[in-house]
Amino acid sequence: MDLDSYFKENKSDVEDLLDVPEGFKSGFVTFVGRPNSGKSTLLNALVGKKVAITSKVANTTRHRFSGVINRVDCQIIIVDTPGIHKPRDVMGEELNLAAYQALQDSDVVCFLVDSTRPFGRGDAWVLEEVKKSSAHKFCLLTKTDIATDEQILLQIKHLSETFDFEEIVPISAFDKTNIDLLIDLIKDRIPEGHRWFSSDETSDVDDYVYAAEVVREQILHDLKEELPHSIGVVTDDIYESSNGKTLNIYSTIYVERDSQIGIVVGKAGSQLKRIGKNARIELESYFDKNINLQLSVKLKKNWRRDDNAIRKFGYCQ
After folding, report:
1. Which whole-number Å values give the CA distances from 65 to 29, 113, 114, 205, 315, in the listed order?
2. Rounded distance, CA 272 to CA 67, Å?
3. What residues are paired with 32 via a beta bridge?
4. Positions in the chain whose pLDDT score sits under 50
5. Do the Cβ atoms of 65 and 203 come closer than 8 Å?
6. Do 27 and 191 form a contact (C-beta atoms < 8 A)?
7. Phi-psi bin for 262: left (phi > 0), alpha (psi -120 to 50), beta?
8. Degrees (nearest 5) of the Cα angle 94, 99, 102?
9. Which of 260, 253, 262 is nearest to 235 (CA)?
10. What is the pLDDT of residue 312?
11. Parallel, antiparallel, or unpaired for β 232-240 and 167-170?
12. Is 248 exposed, middle or buried (0-12, 13-18, 19+ CB in 10 A)?
């Protein structure tokens, strides 16, 4: 299809991207940090809508995707990345690669540090990758709502001595401390330009991926001790019922060992029913439709070491 034909077929969408006021700014921001530094939670707070799953389990994020902040004067695209960590398998290597790639194309890189935990070797390792980026560099001290003033001040002192960040911002996704300030600081650093996403879009996450991630989120909440990372979820099909009021979603939960099937299913299917019920509630809120969610559980031995399986599950960049 040539450009003229594309423009005619997508005229309203294209006009929305280009129709911006004078001085309008748009740009890309990458969140990086070690696992459990609060990247996805902060992304949701900034966007004002849940677009990324969250969990207390490290390495919850397995996809690199964007949340979109839309304001009258700017559009900020925040790229959420998996936590950078020492990989133990093929999937771990792929997750790190996703984070490294995101650093290359950003206008601003935000290095997230948990204000309640001492700056450690994991943070230092991530910082070395941040230093390689040519983007503006911020440090965000997350979870300040549960940190003491002493913890925050010590972190700021150490970070100021460790690297010359353009901004060090104590921030909380929970009580919204400095959320608006961060948006203003980012806006000051990004270039003028058109929208990259329509003004009503809040994320680039695919519906199939989001549905699978919501199911995995519920599994992590319920079974984080038994199955922290052995679960993979794939959405096999999504289609609307003929009445247009119900969305049918079929997803498969993959485990690595036979014994894990029983853990996910539970006695008389009780665990799987609970996972499905909680996931359905989340999905109904997201899609604003009734959800018919059908879950199945299958064995895929050692899938985290299998390139083909990782690619099938969408965890490969």
Report:
1. 11, 20, 22, 6, 11
2. 30
3. 111
4. 1-3, 6-8, 11, 57-60, 85-87, 89, 91
5. yes
6. yes
7. alpha
8. 125
9. 253
10. 72
11. unpaired
12. middle
In this structure, the chain runs to a length of 317
| 31 Cβ neighbours under 8 A, 6+ residues apart | 39, 42, 43, 78, 79, 80, 81, 110, 112
Around 6, how many Cα atoms within 13 Å sit in the side-chain half-sphere?
A: 4
Three state DSSP letters for the chain: CCHHHHHHHCHHHHHHHHCCCCCCEEEEEEEEECCCCCHHHHHHHHHCCCCCCCCCCCCCCCCCEEEEEECCCEEEEEEECCCCCCCCCHHHHHHHHHHHHHHCCCCEEEEEEECCCCCCHHHHHHHHHHHCCCCEEEEEEECHHHCCHHHHHHHHHHHHHHCCCCEEEECCCCCCCCHHHHHHHHHHHCCECCCCCCCCCCECCCHHHHHHHHHHHHHHHHHCCCCCCCCEEEEEEEEECCCCCEEEEEEEEEECCHHHHHHHHCHHHHHHHHHHHHHHHHHHHHHCCEEEEEEEEEECCCHHHCHHHHHHCCCCC
Give the number of other CB atoms < 10 A from CB of residue 72.
8
310 burial (CB, 10 Å; 0-12 / 13-18 / 19+) is buried
The answer to whether 169 and 182 are in contact (CB under 8 A) is yes
Q: How far is CA 123 from the centre of its chain?
A: 19
CB 233 within 8 A of CB 216: yes
Q: So what's the pLDDT on residue 103?
A: 66
Could you tell me which residues come within 8 angstroms of residue 130 by beta carbon, excluding any fewer than 6 positions away? 32, 103, 109, 111, 137
What are the backbone angles phi and psi of residue 108, rounded to the nearest 5°?
-135, 135
The pLDDT value recorded for residue 279 is 95
